[in-house]
Structure prediction request, 149 residues.
Amino acid sequence: MDNIFDECYANEIIGRIKQLRPDSQRNWGKMNVAQMLAHCSSFQDVAMGNSTSSRSWLGILIGKFVKPMFYNDKPLPKNMSTIPTIMIVDKKEFDKEKEILIQKIIVFQKNGPEKCTKIPHPFFGKLSPEEWGMGIYKHLDHHLKQFSI
Prediction:
């Protein structure tokens, strides 16, 4: 599985993000492209330990059993629910959100697995740095495909 801690995969994702345009149209979901970028940026904050969210009761109940879906080779389901605190519904500025996300990916990749959060994922629970790295790549890939990139 591709891992965002690998510089070549981080660069690939950044290159794809740079292909997005303010008028990029989604194939599924409710967020527009600027909101999606802000959502991905907020998710980076979770992985970096800069933001936390309490575990959901469903996550506590089944999270550890389904967590491989976060980092395995199977695509994430379209319209999958998200962590409520990172659901973006307000208006966002595309260029600003794009640059913020790119910078967070660069920092996350450069910091490496050693600086990855030890805080459990709000749904899946405890993740190793390796699982976070694969999951971050998979999450970004999922949202870029959402906008045909």
User: Anything to note?
Assistant: The mean pLDDT is 94. The radius of gyration is 14 Å.
